[in-house]
Specification:
The protein is an alpha/beta fold. Helices cover about 40% and strands about 20% of the residues.
Length: about 190
Amino acid sequence: MKPRFLFVIFLACVVAGTISYQSLSQNAPEKDIKASYLEGGPFTLASAEGSRTLSEFSGRPVVLYFGYTYCPDICPLGLSVIRDAMEALPAGTIKPTPLFVTLDPARDTTEHLKEYLAFFSPEFVGLTGSLEQIKEVADRYGTYFMAGQPGAKGGYTVDHTGYFYLLDKRGELMRVLDHNTTAQALALELEKLL
């Protein structure tokens, strides 16, 4: 009788463990295909508040976006989508940290980034560094960029890809969303990481 009782307890533990594992794995977000092919990872860049590392933001999800402040259309739209997605998150939730890495360090100083991003939300953290530092981070996250030729007045554009990179609370890249993602869709993906 005793072995049968122990077997029943063992079987109940196995079933309970399987159910717990399945419920946890259903709730835990998995990397999407694009994110699984990218290295991602930690970085250190400069902000108006000094040197910032990705690890400083652990405990909160991160929305990472690459662009430049003189961008005529793509970047302002992307920043607006991030702002609107954050505003759409349920009240009382821990908001993600939006990080904006410039692809134009020659013109985007730390102070200029801070001033520009304040138009969208004071939550944004603007980051810059040397061109080599930015290229290294952009490569690991799968962002392509190239400065165009200066025009008659000396201005130029920076051709670049536009993605929303979503990192979990540990700083691991989990999602890469196309630029045509709506604020509502972005908010839903961010909620999964909260």
